[in-house]
Specification:
single chain; alpha+beta; 4-stranded antiparallel beta sheet; 4 strands; 51% helix
Length: 171
Amino acid sequence: MKKNLISMVILALLIVNLVLTTVMMLNVTKTNAATAAIVTDIASVLQLELDNGDGASTGSVSLADTQTYSISDSMTIPLKKDVEETKDHYAIVSVTISMDTTHEDYETYGPTIDTREALIKSEIVSVISGYTMTEAKISQEQICDEILERLQALFGSTFIYKVSFSEIMFG
C-alpha cells in the first residue's frame, strides 16, 4: 500500500513538473519572440542609416567611380557661442565632396557643380555655424553627415555620397 501511495505522489509531482515546464517554455518563447522582433527592428533602422537612399550603401561606390570636388577656398565660419563664453570662435574649413559618377544625376549636376558652389557654401556655413567650438571638435563626423544630408536635399539626389573635411582648424 505504501509503495502505491509513493508511486502516486511521484506521478503527481511528475505531472506538476511537466505542467510548470510547459508554462515556463511558453513564457520564454513569447519573450524570445518579442526580443527577436526588437532586434529585427533595430537592425532594419541601422540598415536605413547605412543606406544612402537609392538602395546602394555608402561604401559600395568604388574609387574608380568617384569624382571629388574641393571647395576652392577655405571658409572661415563663426561658431555658435557657448553659454559661458564671451569670446567669438571660428572654424576654418576646407571641404571636399565625393560624387558617384555612375549615378544617373551625375551627368546633370556633376560636371557643373562649380557653378553651384555658392549654394553649397551656404549649406556648409548654415550647418557648421549651429555648433559651438566644443561641439564642433567632438562632432566632426556628425557635421559631415549633416552637410551631406543638406546637400542631398539641395540637389534632390544622392549622387553626392560623402562630405569630408580636407582641413579643419578652430580658433
